[in-house]
Structures are given as structure tokens and as C-alpha cells.
Amino acid sequence: MLSRKSEIIAPRPWRATALANVPLVIAMLAMIPLGQLLEGSWGQENLDAYFTRLPILVGINIILAVSLQLINGYSGQFSLGHAGFMAVGAYMAAYPAIEYSQQFSNPGACVIFFVALGICVAIGATPPMILFILLRKTKQFHRSLPAALLIATVIWIVADIASAASAPKTPVWTIWTRFLAALENLYGWIVLHAGPIAGHLLAWLPDLLRKPACFVILLIGAGLCASAVGFIVGLPALRLRGDYLAIATLGFGEIIRIAITNDSTLGGALGLSGIPRYTDFTWLYICVIITVAVIWRVAYSPKGRAIMAVREDEIAASSIGINTTSYKVTAFTIGAFFAGLAGALYAMHESSITPSSFGIIKSIEPVVMVTLGGLGSISGAILAAIILTLLPEVLRSISPDERMVIYSLLLVVMMILRPQGLLGGRELWFGKWSRTRKPRTPAREAVPA
């Protein structure tokens, strides 16, 4: 028989989940009056617009640093391609915002854009994937045959596209060029015929909600595009380690930037201008809270523990049944999603973007923030993002040459005095220092009387 005093009933899962998310909801709701208060004071004529941009830059850098922390800090990889994913998010939000959103009044057209893009990408990725699988099957004949055939296939594709671009008329043998042209026609057909249907389906949406709905669709769509690119890049690149992985991700980031530069649809080297501006303090810091919450819960979930195990010893993790490649790609894809989210927020705040905004320096900045804050510390990434965003502005009164020297010396001195970073892999959890999140207290089992 059980004693009623000793019997403790565990809370229901849905109730525990709801209670755990209450602080997040409160924090996001608090951003609304705070944003209105700050924007009201920013609207004063005596306040320089320069200071209104600093919190925006801080928030965007926090998203970049925290998302990169999952890749570099928790999975133990060394990625230098974050600017490439940010560029994908920025352009995949800016282009439909200009061409389809009609100043954020047509969310249905934005949905159709991403649906059409997803269908075309899925169809376009199928033949290369099948070809890649077939190439791997040739390993049974000779172990070096897949690599040789892969190089020959890449040369074939490049020669196909180059020949079609230089020839006045598309040759018959340019299979890949014709395939890309068919995908382009399919994309145009879907947008043309499905756009009006989506507009009628969303006609019930009140005018008050059209702009927020359109903005949210652009953010999510841009993030998904960046995560898809992260998956495509990460699947082959994450088989490398250390410096080789850093060089590969840096190369992929530059490939993305150069591809955008040579794409006339996306504005080429001049970029895109006239982007409708919607990002403000409230929306940005709601996204910051969501980013921190998601990365935190992923990092300290069972999958996060597996990711950390891969970081500590990949061979040992593999020996106990952990699919190391799968977990590394998962971390890479999630980090790329939030990098694309930061790019979308940036594009819809600046109103114009160029490929030069997403160069090598932009990839190095979040790496420095993650390293300065401490590898494996989300709190440290946030703190370092704030410091490294505001520090150049504090030194703004000094000449540019002296400012860069002082800025670099401060970083060098910091790394010498505290090489493990500001927080050294620790987390700040409600004012207490701990290496992991504060564990949830389990319910006691009933004890017989």
C-alpha cells in the first residue's frame, strides 16, 4: 500500500512543456513595448540615426555567432562559410520581396515563389544525386575509379554550360544546359499559374496581418534556402577535418558569392536595391530569442550530447553507434538556417545589398566572436557579439589605421590572457555558472508505506 504523503505525481508532459516555454513567450512579448519605446525615442530629431543602427547590428551578429557556435563550438568543426549562407538568406528574401511581395501585401505570391523554387531544386538535384550514387558503385571495380569519374563528370558539366553560354545557338549535345532551361520554364509556369490561386486562397487574411505574414514567410523561406545549401555543402565537405574543412567551407562561401555576382537576375555585382524595409528592433530581437532558445535546446538535448561526443572523439563516438556524419550535417544545416535568417533580416533592414557585403571578412567575424566568447558557450557567443560589434564604434573617434591596430591588439591580448575565451565553455544560467544547462529535477518515485 502506498502512502499518500510519499506519493508524488509527475507533471504531465504538455504542462511541463508549456511551463518551460512561458519565459520565452514573456521575453518575446516584452520586445513589443520595448521596441515601440526605443523607436519612439529614435524618432526624435536630435538623435543621430547612427545610434539607431547599432542595436540592429548587435542583434544580427548575435544570431550569426550563436548559430556558428553550434557548428564550431559544439560539433567541433571549423567552418568559414557562414557569410555564404547569410548571402543566400539575404538574396532569397530580398528578391521575392521586390518582385512578388508587392510591398509586403501579397503573402500568397511569396509562398508560391518558395514552393516553385523548392520543386525545381528537388527535380534539378535528382539527376546529379543518381549520377553520384552510380559513380560510387564503380568502387567495386577499382577504388580510384569513382574519383576519376567524378572529375570527368564535373569537367563535362562545366564544358556543357560554358559551350552553351559562348555559342550563339545552344548545341544539341548540351544536355545540362537544356535541363536547366527546362527547370527555368517549369519555375515560370508554376509562378504564373499558381500565383493567382494562392492570392484567392489568402484573400480572407486581414490587411493588418498581411505585412507580418509576408515578412515571416520571407524569413522562413530564406532560412530554408540557406539550410538546403548548408546540407548540400556539408554532406561532402564534413567528411574533411581541421584546416581542410575550413578551406573547403571558405571555398564554398566564395563560390556562392561569385555565383551571385555573375547572376544578372540577382543584380550582379551591383546587388539589389529598393528592398522593402520591415526589420525593426521588435522583430529582430524576437528572432534573436528564438535563435538562442533553439540552439540552446539542440545543444543540450540528447542529439546535442551526441554532437558533443563527435567533437570530443569522433572515432570513439562512431564505435558506440553514433552516425558522426549525420550529426555533423545536422549541426551544419541548423546553423546555416539561422545564418540565412540573419541575412534576411539584414537585407530587409538595409534596403539594398551587394555581394561584396558577404566576403571573407564577414565569414571571419562570427568565427572571432565564437572564439572570443569561448567554444561551447552560447552565453559567451552573445557576450562576444555585443563586445565586438560595439568596440569598433567606441574607437570610432580614432583614425582608421590606429583603430584597427588597437582593435587587433586588444584581441591578441585577450587571447593571451584567456585563451579559452571569455566564459571558457561555461554557460550563464539565471546568474549561476555551470558547464551545462541546469538539470531538471526528476519526480520522486512513490515509496511503499
Question: What does this protein structure show overall?
Answer:
By secondary structure, this protein is mostly helical. It has one domain. Helix content is 71%, strand content 2%. The chain contains 15 helices and 4 strands. The strands form 2 sheets. A two-stranded antiparallel ribbon has the order 1-2. Strand 3 and strand 4 form a beta hairpin. Helix 3 packs parallel to helix 8 and helix 9 packs antiparallel against helix 12 (324-350). The longest helix is centred in the N-terminal third of the chain and has 31 residues, at 107-137. The protein is globular. It starts with 12 loop residues before the first helix and ends in a 15-residue tail after the last strand. 33% of the residues are buried.
Compile the SSE list and pairings.
Layout: H1 13-42, H2 49-74, H3 82-99, H4 107-137, H5 145-166, H6 175-201, H7 207-237, H8 242-261, E1 272-273, H9 281-299, H10 302-312, H11 314-319, H12 324-350, E2 352-353, H13 360-373, H14 378-394, H15 400-417, E3 427-429, E4 432-434
Antiparallel strand pairs: 1-2, 3-4
Strand content: under 5%
Identify low-pLDDT runs.
1-11, 430-449
How many helices? The count is 15
Count of discrete domains:
1
Averaging pLDDT over every residue, what do you get? 81
